[in-house]
């Protein structure tokens, strides 16, 4: 079985994430969407909230599972015997950081590959932090987040 892992903070999941997950799911027998800790960020949504929102947004995909790991991404890949991690690339600005992580992960665990999927053109500008900013100031986020989790995100951030 070919297992792929799609890691991230997902704080919260956006339609940009969902687009990458949808497309990555076609490349593997099983795709695990993995909520991992980003030491540079302090999340707005709890771990459980983020996992529930991913699960609700991906319920149409039969080969997708949601999980959480508090440790090195490559250790999780080893644990589940995954062959690759899949990342979305939006613009040149993502590249340097992602390239650095890909090379580090390759050094730590050479058996796994990092696969970059370029984001769809309409999601190029989108990020979780922008969604949070727009919602906090009362802007319409309906185009930015999966419809099944819209109210949940709106209710929490609008508080
Ligand atoms: O969605 P993000 O926050 O941009 O994703 C970054 C993330 C969470 C994938 C990265 O911080 C990560 O891999 N964290 C897990 C810990 C780890 O393995 N760090 C070393 C990366 S080289």
**Total of helices:** 6
User: How many strand segments?
Assistant: 5
Estimate percent helicity.
40-55%
Bound ligand species: 4'-phosphopantetheine
Unreliable spans are: none
Polypeptide structure, described:
The chain is an alpha/beta fold. Helices cover 42% and strands 19% of the residues. The chain has helices spanning 15-25, 47-57, 73-80, 92-108, 128-136, 147-157; strands at 3-8, 30-36, 64-69, 84-89, 113-118. It starts with a strand and ends with a helix. 31% of the residues are buried. Bound molecules: 4'-phosphopantetheine. 4'-phosphopantetheine binds next to strand 1 and helix 4.
Present the secondary structure layout:
Layout: E1 3-8, H1 15-25, E2 30-36, H2 47-57, E3 64-69, H3 73-80, E4 84-89, H4 92-108, E5 113-118, H5 128-136, H6 147-157
Parallel strand pairs: 1-2, 1-4, 2-3, 4-5
The chain binds 4'-phosphopantetheine (PNS).
Summarize the structure.
The chain is α/β, with parallel strands linked by helices and 159 residues long.
Identify the notable features of this structure and list them briefly:
159 residues, 42% helix, binds 4'-phosphopantetheine
């Amino acid at each position: 079985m070919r297992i792929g892992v799609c890691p991230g903070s997902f704080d919260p999941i956006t339609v940009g994430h969902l687009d990458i997950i949808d497309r990555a799911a076609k490349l593997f027998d099983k795709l695990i969407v993995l909520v991992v800790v980003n030491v540079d960020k302090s999340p707005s949504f709890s771990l459980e909230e983020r996992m529930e929102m991913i699960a609700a947004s991906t319920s149409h995909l039969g080969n997708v599972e949601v999980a959480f790991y508090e440790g090195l991404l490559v250790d999780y890949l080893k644990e589940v015997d995954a062959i690759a991690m899949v990342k979305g690339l939006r613009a040149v600005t993502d590249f340097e950081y992602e390239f650095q992580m890909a090379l580090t992960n390759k050094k730590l665990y050479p058996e796994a590959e990092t696969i970059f999927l370029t984001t769809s053109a309409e999601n190029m500008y989108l990020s979780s932090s922008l969604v949070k900013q727009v919602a906090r100031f009362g802007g319409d986020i309906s185009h930015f987040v999966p419809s099944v989790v819209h109210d949940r995100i709106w209710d929490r951030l609008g508080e």
